[in-house]
Design goal:
The structure holds 2 protein chains of 2 kinds.
Chain A: H1 3-6, E1 11-13, E2 18-19, E3 25-26, E4 30-36, E5 46-50, E6 76-77, E7 82-83, E8 88-92, H2 123-137, E9 142-148, H3 150-161, E10 166-172, H4 180-195, H5 213-227, H6 230-236, H7 256-269, H8 274-286, H9 289-292, H10 297-300, E11 308-314, H11 322-334, E12 339-344, H12 358-368
Parallel strand pairs in A: 5-8, 5-9, 6-7, 9-10, 10-11, 11-12
Antiparallel strand pairs in A: 1-4, 2-3, 4-8
Chain B: H1 5-13, E1 19-23, H2 29-38, E2 41-46, H3 49-57, E3 61-64, H4 67-70, E4 79-85, H5 94-104, E5 105-113, H6 118-127, H7 151-161, E6 164-172, E7 175-177, H8 182-185, E8 188-194
Parallel strand pairs in B: 1-2, 1-4, 2-3, 4-5
Antiparallel strand pairs in B: 5-8, 6-7, 6-8
Classes of the chains: A alpha/beta, B alpha/beta.
Subcellular location (chain A): Cytoplasm
Pathway (chain A): Amino-acid biosynthesis; L-methionine biosynthesis via de novo pathway; O-acetyl-L-homoserine from L-homoserine: step 1/1
Organism (chain A): Alteraurantiacibacter lauratis
């Protein structure tokens, strides 16, 4: 972590080593987090937001590396659906991440960067770390936990494993388990990183090495396609050419869509660590809430029957399609939890949860209250 | 807020503090009244996403889904009261839906438009065309009503299935009427049923 950046991060060191699902223990865990809005005197107005795979704690605040607005600035703020004039919003970078929370780029106890010596973590491990953060902040009870995509997985894991700790759970564009297709796409990304000679078995930190930028860029490109809809891509790019009138009969980015993806890939390498990408995608692939509960998803939510849930899917999301949300709703119904579900119509594919979908704003505002 | 007369009747009959499933709950109007006035634990099922959005936005627990399929997912006896208002005639299999309601709820309220209402009979007899009325304003080719029924048809189905009628109420011109000659006089009917 560059010093200039580190000074801009708000962090907390966990008092205890963190036990992991793998059986290992992660020592010296640091969590970087941001808060928005004032904490009520009775500490009863806290909303914990979980970020997605490549997101971070800069939900509604300018990103210190990219200088871009927060990733959910349209949803979180004074007077917005998640209203920070009423609620105290907390968002922490997940462990394994690369925005200040302990991850593979950090130093292990021997003073060398973890690299691939970082333990494989799970979604539940990420949540466990944040529960420890809440404990240390003295926040017992949450008004809500909220997350989209991987953040939704964390929200569901929180509800299943720490039942009663949050009054409401809002899970958007997510799933209770990674499908074979989800795992397959992630494996393409991981193999692209590992095939880059600059990856060096994950040992690329320091010494002026640049890391597997090519591989990480390709991983991002492949993943980015899964976040969009075919119709969205067609509308945005079609077969239009990039800054030229005719095909070049070469392998430059002739098409706008190629140029766009290349840009997305390169921009990503400026703010994301390739090893973090490996570890986080692995955690997502391992996620299967039903498996944790012995095979039946309803059993995972057995303790959460008093929690209010809202599950939202998008009709053009083929990464975590509506059927996955219905699976969650079905399980919640089976334990008689008060659950709302709606499939919203939006053209943007999986990324709809981040974009301008007025119906999403209305549902979130109504549910969170 | 003034509820439609059949919904107001159902609202008045639902006991305090029970668990209620409203099938085809729309934007949650009845659920809202029941929650506020009867302190029930209300859940809804609605097929139209925009209606669901409005219901969730008012803080209700409503699931977007198709009653024709999704009711099968609810556990036996999960609710004290299951409500089906003005939806029976749109069901793919009204008989299946009725079975599901009485499986999921200990008591069921079913309300439906009576297609043997005298004005409808007259419209068909004299006009020779499928009636379009204030309460059924959509032409035959566009209507969601695919299983037209009368009060007597419904009673026959209940008898065939051995369903117990705990009460029935009838409405015309926006107010409650007596049960005398209801199959002629009623525009709408509300039945309270149990197994």
């Amino acid at each position: 972590m560059a010093t200039a950046l580190a000074s801009q991060l708000n962090t907390l060191d966990l008092a205890q080593p963190l036990p992991l699902d793998s059986g290992k223990v992660l020592p010296n865990v640091r969590l970087a987090y941001e808060t928005y809005g004032d904490l009520a005197a009775d500490r009863g107005n806290v909303i914990l937001i979980f970020h997605a795979l490549t997101g971070d704690q800069f939900v509604a605040r300018t990103h210190p590396i990219t200088g871009k607005p927060g990733w959910w600035q349209r949803m979180v703020g004074p007077g917005l659906p998640i209203d920070t004039s009423r609620y105290h919003v907390i968002c922490a970078n997940i462990i394994g991440g690369c925005m200040g929370s302990t991850g593979p780029a950090d130093l292990a106890e021997d003073g060398q960067a973890y690299g691939m010596r970082f333990p494989v973590i799970t979604i539940r491990d990420m949540v466990r770390a944040q529960v420890a953060l809440l404990d240390q902040l003295g926040i017992d009870r949450l008004h809500a936990v909220v997350g989209g995509s991987m953040g939704g997985m964390l929200a569901l894991s929180f509800a299943a494993n720490w039942p009663g700790r949050a009054d409401c759970v809002l899970a958007i564009a997510t799933t209770a388990r990674h499908s074979a297709q989800n795992i397959a796409f992630h494996e393409v990304g991981r193999q692209a990183i590992m095939a880059d000679p600059d990856w060096r078995g994950g040992d690329y930190y320091g010494g002026g090495r640049k890391g597997p930028e090519k591989g990480l860029s390709v991983a991002r490109m492949a993943a980015h396609i899964t976040y969009l809809s075919e119709a969205g891509l067609t509308e945005k790019f079609g077969r239009r050419l990039q800054d030229r009138d005719a095909k070049s009969f070469g392998f430059d980015a002739d098409f706008q869509v190629e140029s766009y993806l290349r840009h997305q890939g390169i921009a990503f390498t400026n703010r994301f660590d390739a090893n973090s990408y490996l570890y986080i995608t692995r955690a997502m692939d391992y996620f299967d809430l039903a498996e944790e509960a012995g095979g039946r998803l309803a059993d995972a939510f057995a303790g959460a029957s008093g929690t209010r849930f809202c599950v939202i899917s998008f009709d053009t999301d083929w990464l975590y399609p509506t059927a996955e949300s219905r699976n969650i709703v079905h399980a919640l119904n089976a334990v008689a939890a008060p659950v709302s579900f709606v499939e919203l119509s939006a053209p943007f594919g999986h990324d709809s949860f981040l974009l301008d979908v007025p119906a999403l704003d209305r549902v979130v505002k109504g549910f969170v209250g | 807020m003034s509820l439609r007369p059949d919904l107001a009747k159902i609202a008045s009959l639902v006991p305090q503090g029970v668990r209620v499933l409203d099938v085809g709950c729309g934007d949650g109007e009845l659920m809202d009244v029941l929650t506020r006035e009867k302190h029930v634990d209300a859940r809804g099922l609605e097929i139209d996403p925009e209606e669901v959005e409005r219901a969730v936005a008012r803080g209700l627990s409503v699931i977007q889904g198709d009653a024709n399929r999704d009711l099968a997912d609810y556990p036996d006896g999960a609710f004290d009261v299951a409500i089906l208002s003005q939806t029976l005639q749109t069901a793919q299999r009204p008989d299946w839906l009725l079975d599901q309601l009485l499986r999921i709820g200990r008591t069921a309220f079913v309300s439906f438009p009576n297609f043997a209402y005298w004005k409808m009979r007259m419209a068909l007899l004299l006009g020779g065309r499928m009636p379009v009325t204030r309460h059924l304003p959509v032409s035959w080719y566009a209507t969601a009503n695919i299983h037209h029924l009368t009060v007597e048809d419904f009673r026959d189905l209940l008898a065939e299935k051995g369903v117990k009628v705990e009460g029935c109420w009838f409405f015309a011109d926006g107010r409650e009427i007596g049960s005398f000659n209801a199959n002629w006089r009623a525009e709408h009917a509300v039945f309270r049923l149990s197994r």
